Amino acid sequence: MAQLDTREKLEILADAAKYDASCSSSGTVKRGSKDGKGLGSTDAGMGICHAYAPDGRCISLLKILLTNSCIFDCHYCINRKSSNVRRARFTAKEVVDLTIAFYKRNYIEGLFLSSGIIASSNYTMEQMVEVARSLREDHHFRGYIHLKTIPDADPALVHQAGLHADRVSINIELPTAGGLKRLAPEKDGVRIETAMREVKAAITDGRDAKKKYKSAPTFAPAGQSTQMIVGADAATDRDIVTRASSLYDRFGLRRVYYSAFSPIPDASSVLPLQRPPLMREHRLYQSDWLMRFYDYAPAEIVAAADTSTGMLPLDIDPKLAWALKFRGSFPVDVNRAPREMLLRVPGLGTKAVAAILTSRRWRRLRLDDVARLTVSIAKVRPFIVAENWRPVVLADRADLRPLIAPKKEQLELFAA
């Protein structure tokens, strides 16, 4: 490998890290250095890789790979062993120095570190753990650290990663076991799930110990997450939603991330020639949001998909697709309906529903009251009953979808 300076390595390894979508800092504990001790904090800022917390805070992270060299040859990976890409590798000390230097320049407030596999899974995991250990112990860094762990590594090393990192993640890679076997034959789906189960147990044990002893070490306070590639195999949206729901239930994940497959140079013949529509990735995130915050069961999301193809519609969001498919559940009375039914009304978010529940305790709501709580009252009207509104004509229309689906518009390149 040619000798590269730090700037050249950073250019290569920051670009290689862009394929990893699971970059989020939500859910961690608050740490700061206002007491004059330590360095950094987990509070908001501006920087290189932007992730967003549930309350809307923008978190800036240095997002890089330790190396883009790899002993594995996964068909879909740009950094696979047979890929003809320029290689680079950081030492653990270089990553630590970069993180500290970037933080002091107010570029970042945390680190997201992943890596290809070099030499062996254990050796690579040791290097990543050393980065986190040095930041925490040698430099007293109190900012956010997210480590992408390696499921084949020794469980003791993964445990060490969780003691230093705010969040750990293990990629499930592909939605189906068949897809993983065909596109990443060197990876073991059973071992991946075993590693995720061990991390879940360690998180639970750490929380229980913290309740009994304040001095007990914290293990991955922001939990664990995973990522799956969309569009590299034949998995449908129905398969992906079902798989994501299973992962949430079995491993207590904080997030499942979806990454649309992107064609790579010198691609294998088993891969599709074109990437899936980015809107497909967006619809999967919306369905994920419905399950986590809108009390939708996975079966309800699956029911919104096309019966023959198993795919969610691209022109409308999953919530509207479900409402149109189950017209018999509507309209709902905004002055009487329970929260779970109000959450199923297209165009009403969690905040709007909370406002409706509060307001109707004092007076009966009219259509214009609801209009003030939503971006598009036209989208809401066919599905609700208010004090002065009943959608008699709209409720009976068989062709309701064209009236409420978003209009296709040509974007202007130089629009103000």
UniProtKB/TrEMBL annotation:
Its cofactor is [4Fe-4S] cluster. Keywords: Iron, Iron-sulfur, Metal-binding, S-adenosyl-L-methionine. Gene3D superfamilies: Aldolase class I. CDD domains: Radical_SAM. Residues 60-287 form the Elp3/MiaA/NifB-like radical SAM core domain. It comes from the Bacteria. Transmembrane segments: none annotated. GO terms for molecular function: catalytic activity; iron-sulfur cluster binding; metal ion binding. SMART domains: Elp3 (SM00729). The keyword S-adenosyl-L-methionine applies. Coiled coil: none annotated. This is Putative DNA modification/repair radical SAM protein. It comes from Sphingomonas oligophenolica. The lineage of its organism: Bacteria, Pseudomonadati, Pseudomonadota, Alphaproteobacteria, Sphingomonadales.
